[in-house]
Amino acid sequence: YLRKSGQFIYGKQNLHKGAFGIIPDELDGFESSSDIPAFDINKEFNSKYIFYYFSRRHFYEKLEDISTGTGSKRIQPKELYKVEIKVPSTLEKQNAIVKIIDTATDELTKYEQKLETLQVQKKGLMQQLLTGKTRVKI
């Protein structure tokens, strides 16, 4: 199955574990199996809004309730179509929400990078203390 950039895709077996996304431009025209359904998103909707809506852990974990089958349960497209999602009435409102979430995500990423840097520095200082190469007055 050929996939197009901007489509919403999900893994039938793992949607309830967060296996979904929007196909980026660089993967336009790539193929996937029928176990990864794809949906075109109407131009009246911001695809990132849809992605962020699904990204809420409480939302996607609850989707396990609509999975069917024995052994490896799957969420079929016909079942996903029945799921109601709340979407602001205008594209402008969706865009505003996406902008806020993008900004918060960028800030969070910066703080995570800073935390990682500080953890590496701490590890280095602890190693120096343990090898006796750094002296500290108490």
Structure description:
This protein has 138 residues and is mainly α. It is built from 4 helices and 3 strands, in the order E-E-E-H-H-H-H. Strands 2-1-3 form a 3-stranded antiparallel beta sheet, covered by helices on one side.
Layout of SSEs?
Elements: E1 8-10, E2 20-22, E3 38-39, H1 47-54, H2 57-62, H3 77-80, H4 91-131
Antiparallel strand pairs: 1-2, 1-3
Given the C-alpha coordinates, what overall shape results? elongated
Residue fraction in strands? 5-15%
**Looking at the chains present, what oligomeric state does this protein adopt?**
single chain
Overall number of strands: 3
> How widely separated are the two ends?
67 Å
N to C succession of SSEs: EEEHHHH
Question: How many strands, what sense, and barrel or not for the largest sheet?
Answer: 3 strands, antiparallel
Number of helices: 4
Mean pLDDT: 92
Q: Which class best fits the helix and strand makeup?
A: mainly alpha
Task: State the gist of this model.
With 138 residues, the protein is mainly alpha-helical. It is 43% helix and 6% strand.
Question: Which characteristics define this entry?
Answer:
138 residues; mainly alpha; three-stranded antiparallel β-sheet; 4 helices
